[in-house]
Amino acid sequence: MSADKPTDAPSGGFDEPKPVDPHVPGEVAAVRPGFAETMMYVRAEEEPVLPPPRGSIGAVGWAQQNLFSSIGNTILTLVGVALILLIVPPIVEWAFIDAVWTGDSREDCIVPGAGACWAFVEAKFGQFIYGRYPLDQRWRVDLTAVLLIIGVVLMAVPRIPYKRETAIYLFGIFPVVALLLLTGGNFNISIWSAVGLVVLGCIATAVVAAFAAPSVPGYVAPALAGLAVLAWLVSVFVVTPDVGIGADGTSLATLLAVFCGLAGGVVGLVAIARRGFAGARSALGVWSAVGLLCLILGIFAVDFGLSYVETPLWGGLLVTLVVALSGMGASMPIGIALALGRRSRLPIVRFASIAFIEFVRGVPLITVLFMASVMLPLFLPQGVNFDKLLRALIGVALFEAAYMAEVIRGGLQAIPTGQYEAAKAVGLKFWQMMRLVILPQALKIVIPGIVNSFISLFKDTSLVLIIGIFDLLGIVQANFTDANWASPSTPATGYVFAALIFWIFCFGMSRYSLYTERRLDTGYRN
Known about the structure:
This protein is mainly α and 526 residues long. Helices cover 64% and strands 2% of the residues. Strands 1-2 form a two-stranded antiparallel ribbon. β1 and β2 form a beta hairpin. The longest helix is centred in the C-terminal third of the chain and has 31 residues.
């Protein structure tokens, strides 16, 4: 082979020059076989950006990706469309097209081809919302609703400031104002109610002294407190001689309970003072709570000029919201306390919390309501009785607290051990650690479980009808017996109206829960 002729086969040398690409940049180059690795192509101008295919964007693209992405999805889509065409048109025709919107009696709803009897809902709307609440006093319910909406909006919108003040208003001031507005106030509160609160404060002070100031007075104080509790139990279940004090008389056991409780409180304060005021902050918190409760009792005893409306006249959506909101508000702190108690290292606290949670979760809500309405008065002293609605509220709150405790306990168990160790490393005490580090993270984790419990509670409020309290569903069913509105479509219309109200509240809670989850989802953001 001649030396001046190029060859296609490599010679095996190390210094042989590589082929040179002779084409001009920007032009198409003729590429010989085997030359692709040495060719460089440089574009003189940018390639124009082409729009995506029409089949991958818009409604057509969304349908192709979500409804017709496979044979199975296509079959399910077609079946779903067929069901919609089969079910929705008759519902629309019954609820809107053929519905009776206005009328004065059943005669307007029994015409041939009539659909939903919305005239019945319009005529009974006041009862569905207020129950048998007096007509001239319903402004009090409306004012209570406005105050509630203001508090909820201020608390729910993140951009509105002063959340701490709003929480004090919503959970502290509003319940007192709502109770005064709805009932009228001017309760017949005996002086013994205030005395009982003071005795409870003394007993709590004695317990604080036992833990914070271990000494002879610190051990005598809880002993006196135990005698006070024992004497009170005797006064409840055993008939003892009465002792006249002024115009009223009370049992000897009750007086003994008051004396022992007050003595235990005084001895406890002495023990705290002798130990350098150890536990003074806890004692101050106890007496602040006692003073606040005494102030609230005094407010309830004041006559504000409002007529008294007894709770049997309440009904409809008013009762539903009262039961639901009271249960939600009370079950949250009780559930947190039970969850912490179940994880406590103190055997008495842990076993008491476990026993309460497992016992309450093992019985249905109807049983709890029956116990609160029928059985509880049998165990109270003679002449002592509570309002039926109040007993139902207590039963619902305790029942919901047991379930809430397990939801919150799941959040506490999901917190890594390092969080506890880090909080202790910076010098935080137990309650500081829980308040500042652990509980905020645990509650954020279990937001879906908490809201799910609230939604379940809101729907379970209809069970109070079993004990004679007419909530929204109960008052709707009670109006079916009105002969003036008896028609084939009246029951279905009433149930649809009640279902719509329940759905609005439950759907609203669900949507706000999702919004809160997205807003607080800061742990896994990139």
